[in-house]
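[recover] target loaded
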């Protein structure tokens, strides 16, 4: 499909099949380990269903949507690049996206890890209320609206032979079985959803030059209808992000890193955007080494001794350029310090600097700040995909996205009338993923 052209439209017609759509899903945020890229449009983001504590705790909790702004702009981030536009039973369908390395690439760059590599995904079935029950019989309004075990088979067809999906077909009764990894997600009027966990395994043998797809068909008694789709992100070009870590020494206390930061950067964060991370550990940079012969360094250390950190970022950048690397701004440095700053644990700019960052959030802070370095903004700022287009934005501290916060703050009034700020932890517990539109931006900007 040429750039700028519209995807092929596949629209279903009246059928002898019971009407439903199939959606690919991953494990929930608390379980997702970030070892592959997966994103999907979440309709619930725009529904007023999140009870959100306003900034002042004395105010009443209100029911609001997690995302505000233009819904079509967010939808467009998932349909951009879609190979085939499908309309199951005339219904709007927005595909999920999967980003994985090919087996060939993994075998070369990850010491043969590709041989047994595949991603296990869940399947969600959304039943559509219609005028027939899949047997061309009128719906009996006195009976419960539910999925029928009528012999329907799901078949998965990939657009590229390098894509492997196992199994290639599945009986609909998997969603109704009383055994195994399945459950009914909802039982509300006009909203019947069923889930099979780890239903399919997907791998990619060789590189995909273009975005590809897996279409899901429902078949029964000669009837065949397209009911679902998964998009696979092209993976023929894998950018490399070189990150240089430097411990900055300003006193006797050595800066600390998390034990697994290298694995996190390489296999649980930027890999989701199909970006290879190369980590370089440079020698420590000890301020004290230069203080006798450099008045400015001595002044900077004296300021730190009285907890004055206002000029530390500028000083660090200036001294590192002077004594170590004049081309600092052109590279991706992460300076790890034991300097404490009340207003945050990380900062971007010419480089990323961590301020006495706790080990339990070290990984997320590094990814968050590197994301800023490559142009990603906070989720709770206006997200404009096109400079002249409409925007959307999220409430802070409520998603597991790397560009969110792991907490949000509210102001509480104490008995003495004073206001005290309190942090409320993000309910997802951990920042662990990028959105698909962030994959697009990162891949354009990483160098």
């Amino acid at each position: 499909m040429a750039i700028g052209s519209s995807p092929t439209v596949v629209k279903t017609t009246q059928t002898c099949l019971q009407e439903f759509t199939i959606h690919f899903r991953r494990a929930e945020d608390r379980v997702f380990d970030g070892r592959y890229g997966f994103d999907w449009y979440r309709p619930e983001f725009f529904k007023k269903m999140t009870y959100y504590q306003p900034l002042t705790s004395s105010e009443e909790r209100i029911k609001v949507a997690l995302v505000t702004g233009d819904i079509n702009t967010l939808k467009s981030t998932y349909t951009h690049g879609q190979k085939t536009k499908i309309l199951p039973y005339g219904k709007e369908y927005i595909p999920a996206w999967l980003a994985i390395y090919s087996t060939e690439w993994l075998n070369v760059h990850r010491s043969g890890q590709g041989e047994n590599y595949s991603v296990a995904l869940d399947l969600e079935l959304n039943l559509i209320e219609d005028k027939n029950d899949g047997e061309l019989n009128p719906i009996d309004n006195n009976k419960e609206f539910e999925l029928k075990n009528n012999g329907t088979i799901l078949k998965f067809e990939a657009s590229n032979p390098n894509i492997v999906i196992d199994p290639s077909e599945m009986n609909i009764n998997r969603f109704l079985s009383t055994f195994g990894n399945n459950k009914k997600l909802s039982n509300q009027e006009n909203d019947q959803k069923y889930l099979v966990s780890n239903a399919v395994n997907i791998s990619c043998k060789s590189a995909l030059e273009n975005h590809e797809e897996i279409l899901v068909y429902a078949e029964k008694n000669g009837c065949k209808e397209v009911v679902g789709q998964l998009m696979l992100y092209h993976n023929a070009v894998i950018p490399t992000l070189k990150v240089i870590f430097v411990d900055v020494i300003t006193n006797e206390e050595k800066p600390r890193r998390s034990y697994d930061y290298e694995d996190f950067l390489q296999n649980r964060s930027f890999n989701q955007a199909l970006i290879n991370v190369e980590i370089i550990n440079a020698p420590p940079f000890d301020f004290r080494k230069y203080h006798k012969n450099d008045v400015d360094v001595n002044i900077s250390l004296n300021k730190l001794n009285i907890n004055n950190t206002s000029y530390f970022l500028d000083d660090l950048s200036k001294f590192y350029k002077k004594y170590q690397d004049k081309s600092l701004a052109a590279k991706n440095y992460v300076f790890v310090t034991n300097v404490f700053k009340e207003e945050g644990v990380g900062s971007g700019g010419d480089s990323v600097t961590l301020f006495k960052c706790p080990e339990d959030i070290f990984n997320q802070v590094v990814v968050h700040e590197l994301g800023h370095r490559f142009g990603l903004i906070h989720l709770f700022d206006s997200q404009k995909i096109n400079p002249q287009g409409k925007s959307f934005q999220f409430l802070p501290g409520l998603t597991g996205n790397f560009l969110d916060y792991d907490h949000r703050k509210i102001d509480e009034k104490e008995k003495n009338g004073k206001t005290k700020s309190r942090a409320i932890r993000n309910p997802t517990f951990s920042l662990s993923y990028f959105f698909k539109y962030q994959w697009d931006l990162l891949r354009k900007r990483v160098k």
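[recover] notes: Confidence is low (pLDDT under 50) at residues 1-5.
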